[in-house]
Amino acid sequence: MQLDERMVFSGQDPGMIVFLCNASGRVLSASPRADEAFPGTGGGETLRERLDQRLCLNREESLGTALIDGAESSLKGLMDNREVTLGITPVGEHQRLVVLLESLCPPSNFDSLTGLPDRSAMLERIREVQEQGEGGHRLLLVDIDRLKTVNDYLGYQVGDRVIRDLAGAMQKTMPDDVMIARWSGHEFMLLLPPRQSERSQDLAERIRTATATIRFDSADDIPHLGTVTVSIGHGVLGPGETARTPPQDQLSAINAAVYEAKRTGRDRVVDADHLKQPSVYTTGGALNRAIHEGRILAASQPIVDLKTGQVVADEALARMITPEGEVIPAGLFIEAASRLQMAHRIDFEIINQTISNCVASIDHRPMAHFVNISGDFLQHPELMEQVIENARDACACLDDTGQMQAKPLVLEMTEREVLEDTGDAFAALKPLIDFGLRLALDDFGSGYSSYRYLLDMPFTFLKIEGALVQNMNESLRARKIVQHIQAMASDMGLITVAEFIGDKRTANTLRDMGIDWGQGFHFGRPELVQPHRVAEVVTAHQI
Question: Where are the alpha helices (DSSP H) in 181-279?
Answer without folding.
Answer: 194-197, 200-211, 247-263
